[in-house]
# Entry
Amino acid sequence: MQTTPFAIPSKAAGAGRTFALEALFWAAAVAAIFLAPRRLLLLNEIAILGLFALSLDLVLGYAGIVSLGHAAFFGLGAYSAGLLLLHVTTNPLWALFAAALSGGVLGFATSFLVLRGTDLTRLMVTLGVSLLLGEAANKLHDLTGGADGLQGITAAPVFGLFRFDLAGHTAYVLSLAMLFACVLVARRITASPFGMTLRTIRDNPLRAAAIGVPVTRRLVAVYTIAALFAGLAGGLLAVTTQFVSLDVFDFARSADVMLVLILGGTGYLYGGLLGAVAFKVLQDVISTLTPQYWRFWIGLLLVALMIAGRDRLGAVFKRVPRAGGPS
# Structure
């Protein structure tokens, strides 16, 4: 469609609203350090879950790859960071690097299996990888601690200056900084020609291949990057809590991050982040009221949202920017 002179001011205004919304989001995240000092542990969980959701959104929302075992990368990253802190160095930044690297390597190694077949095949393969890693962590008790988890993990102060405290100040700032950096990287990726070809592949892989897009290489690349982000999220959990258990591989963790994307919307840079905020706040509030049945109420809310229609839910995030352009 040809752009008219009247459309240019409209696009500029949309870009301004986009920047204002993004600035407001991050300003609120930073202000929470001072306005909610007693809730920093919860905010740290939100930041980690947001990063995990962002990683899944790269493969689901942009590339159209459905995964039920995304926790495999998260769990491997958590154990890699925990083992490094326990046996090699207490430097948290090196632990995060190891977590991201291990997640990326696993993503690259399994991408060739995941990309074969249809969506149902991909669901089973991703779930199978996660289950295999979880069982391996359970059996290798001498290395992973088995059902007892990795205990005695110690993380040194970040840059030798900022110690991890019980209130979660350093933990939240570190997780928020990593989340912000990954959002910038994801924005750059999805707004590039590479990101545009991912959308083409998602919508019609046969047509994408026909016009010369290297479909397999593109999907392997984005799957590896998403796995790297998920591994980093797992590493943040290990570093900030200084404990790793088998539940990092649980199916419930993969299901929760899928629910986060349903709440926030796929194909948005901020859909997973807003979904993580909504999910964790709901979990915190409802579990306080009914500790045994909080999942029932969240499930009921999800059913209500589906009955109301995703378009109505999407309207809540209509002004949240899609990667690659203003809304």
Remarks:
- Confidence is low (pLDDT under 50) at residues 1-16, 311-327.
- The chain is about 75% helix and 0% strand.
- Residues 21-316 form a domain with the ABC transporter involved in vitamin B12 uptake, BtuC fold (CATH 1.10.3470).
- The first helix runs from residue 7 to 35.
